[in-house]
């Protein structure tokens, strides 16, 4: 019998209505009717999951649910809530790949932002928050490009855009403040920036909070966090603001004496301020490196999410933008349990973005990731093959094939071979 009974239809849009093949080929599915067969859950159960209207309609033991027209065989896969990317940089992403100075021409930024979001979607991130500079040389061109990318990605991934002005105080800040308000009118849904770079950091935060309050926008600020007094003032100013305040990457907190960092973490928790750490490296918003003390922050009750930061730009030319790598680093380097590390890139990341919770249970949004493996620890270690579900349909698939040459050892161990029939990997054609 099904473990979760079918739910009433939801009013949420189901996206595309085109038909999907039984193999789950991206872009060929009826979003209102899909059955995921034989998936393993983190609690060890093997289940079928029926999706309808962008939501999980029912979850049952393998073979217990009736089959709709579209099926995806997930035997050998672990099914988990899809990760989200809470800290990307759309305007600088992939800029390290080119020769010469970085181009901020609108069409080029749009191309890079779209390609970067698709790369991260392939990793499993069905929702992304991208910081974009406004003002200075770029003006509002990069913001316009990111908003065009957001529209182009509709139905594949949810992209929210953070307006990130450089200076907001004094005479020089007047233009930045005007540009920030224009960016919100254009469609930026989050107010951001880096108060550490302004001559008056407290005035910068006051200006950001004022604009955010005017428009009902969340706030997401860059700070290294090495000044506890500044963080205390920010927490006091931001406390109770809705829809919420997020800081990142806060690597400087890890360089403070333990008692000072603990006191600061308590202040952030009391104010309801979330922290997004960047275990894969830095970003273009903060020059200093280092990861926030995630265990200390979690112990204080701070909501801690993990983002990717720079994706192959000057800050991190080899950035991968992979949420599962961020979770792997939190587990392997910073001592979090696999479940807590994955929470940082999934449930906590979605909460920071203001998105509804996802569970593999009836009635929850069908934002899912299937990864080849049977345990979360193994998935974080070797997350090669992935199937990504957004709004109830398969939107990305990555398949990895490992082959071994034909030797006595491989024959004795019965190692897997998926090469062409009659020819081992590495043999000449």
Word description of this protein:
The chain is α/β, with parallel strands linked by helices and 429 residues long. It contains 12 helices and 17 strands. The strands form 3 sheets. The chain has an 8-stranded parallel sheet with strand order 7-8-9-10-11-12-13-14. The chain has a 5-stranded mixed sheet with strand order 1-4-3-2-5, with no helix packed on it. A 4-stranded antiparallel sheet has the order 6-15-16-17. Helix 4 runs parallel beside helix 5. The longest helix has 18 residues. The protein is globular, with a radius of gyration of 23 Å. The N terminus and C terminus are likely disordered.
Structural Rg: 23 Å
Give the neighbour order of strands across the main sheet. Answer: 7-8-9-10-11-12-13-14
Shape: globular
Name the average pLDDT: 87
The major sheet is characterized as: 8 strands, parallel
- Report strand %: 15-25%
């Amino acid at each position: 019998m099904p473990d979760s009974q079918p739910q009433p239809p939801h009013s949420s849009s189901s996206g595309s209505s085109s038909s999907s093949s039984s193999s789950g080929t991206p872009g060929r599915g009826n979003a209102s009717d899909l059955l995921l067969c034989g998936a393993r859950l983190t609690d060890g159960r093997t289940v079928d999951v029926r999706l309808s209207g962008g939501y999980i309609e029912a979850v049952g033991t393998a073979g217990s649910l009736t089959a709709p027209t579209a099926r995806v065989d997930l035997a050998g896969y672990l099914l988990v809530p899809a990760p989200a990317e809470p800290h990307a940089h759309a305007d600088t992403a992939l800029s390290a790949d080119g020769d010469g100075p970085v181009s901020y021409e609108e069409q080029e930024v749009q191309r890079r932002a779209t390609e970067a979001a698709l790369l991260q979607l392939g990793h499993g991130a069905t929702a992304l928050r991208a910081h974009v500079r406004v003002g200075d040389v770029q003006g509002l061109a990069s913001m316009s490009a990111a908003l065009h990318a957001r529209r182009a990605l509709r139905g594949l991934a949810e992209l929210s855009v953070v307006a990130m002005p450089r200076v907001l105080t004094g005479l020089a800040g007047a233009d930045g403040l005007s540009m920030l308000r224009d960016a919100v009118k254009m469609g930026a849904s989050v107010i951001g920036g880096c108060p550490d770079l302004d001559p008056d950091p407290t005035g910068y935060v006051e200006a950001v909070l004022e604009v955010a309050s005017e428009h009902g926008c969340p706030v997401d600020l860059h700070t290294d966090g090495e000044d506890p007094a500044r963080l205390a003032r920010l927490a006091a100013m931001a406390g109770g603001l809705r829809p919420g305040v997020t800081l990142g990457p806060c690597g400087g907190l890890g360089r403070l004496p333990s008692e000072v960092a603990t006191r600061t973490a308590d202040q952030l928790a009391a104010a309801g301020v979330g922290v997004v750490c960047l275990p894969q490296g830095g970003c273009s918003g903060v020059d200093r490196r280092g990861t926030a003390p995630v265990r200390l922050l979690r112990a204080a009750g701070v909501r801690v999410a993990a983002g990717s930061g720079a994706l192959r730009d000057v800050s991190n030319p080899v950035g991968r933008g992979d949420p599962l790598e961020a979770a792997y680093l939190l587990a392997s380097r910073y001592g979090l349990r696999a479940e807590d590390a994955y929470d940082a890139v999934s449930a906590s990341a979605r909460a920071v973005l203001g998105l509804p919770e996802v569970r593999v249970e009836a009635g929850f949004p069908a934002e899912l990731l299937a990864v080849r493996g049977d345990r979360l620890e193994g998935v974080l270690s070797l997350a090669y093959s992935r199937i990504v579900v957004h709004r109830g349909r398969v939107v990305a698939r990555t398949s990895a094939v490992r082959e071994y040459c034909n030797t006595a050892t491989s024959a004795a161990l019965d190692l897997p071979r998926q090469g062409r029939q009659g020819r081992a990997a590495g043999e000449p054609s």
